[in-house]
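Working notes for the structural subgroup meeting. M.R. asked for a predicted model of this chain before we commit to crystallization trials. I am recording the input and output together here so anyone reviewing the notebook later can reproduce the run.

Input as submitted:
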Amino acid sequence: MLRLLKLEYYKNIGYKPFKIFTGLYFGIFILLLFIGLVDFDLLGQKINLKEQGMYNFPEIWNFTTYTVALLKIFIGLIIIYSISQEFTNRMFKQNIIDGLSRKEFIVSKLLSISLITLISSLLVFIITLFIGFSYSEQTTSDLVWKESFFIGNYCIKLFTFFTFLMFITILVRKSTFAFLLLFVLWVGESILSGIEVSIAKKAAVTKEAIANLKQHFFFSDLLPLHSMSSLIPNPTDRLKIVQALVASEHNFDYPLKSFIMCLLWSGLFIFGSYWILKKRDW
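Returned structure, recorded in token form:
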């Protein structure tokens, strides 16, 4: 295991995009977590996320994980480029000739993905606690840990996304094609989701039925990108100003279906990547 991690390290350490995107990721990562301390001008009204409750326990777990998850594409770029380089520079073929098995190749990529995911999750966990204890209105134990499960969801979301990128990059081999395929799949899922919601709204007769569409089953909920997205809901619904407008408190139901689907998709992406490597004549 250590040998495979060292192999990945030496492959990427001299790779300039790796250094650039890693630096951008962690730099913006830290800045975004403190963005709630800045005043925003929204329709002539100043909004401060800290004053709106985003730094309060337990809401802060939702806010930090959702915000930082938006940056996952930076690490995704590294994964796509590094894997595509394996094939365009014939490093994969040379590694196989030198005795590296296809299974070890997949394991080395999974170790890198897992390490990045764990480091990112640990940083979010530590910084969330720091910000929360610094700015939260209440720091009782039950509130502090009430929604800490968002860290686990964040970890699963990143791992699933990175294995997804590994799969499509091994499938098409070229980084440009991998980006194009990712975009097409994202657009396709968005269109399908929009169509399903539109049909459901037309079928719903009352306003109450329309309001409860979140409990409605949609096929798009089972798709990979939508499953990942559903793991961490948009925290803006929890802003005090939003709850005042809708005259109700935010209700959160744990996305168990999305959690299970992400685990299943991760397994399929890993198996699919290995299967492609075994079946293709490289």
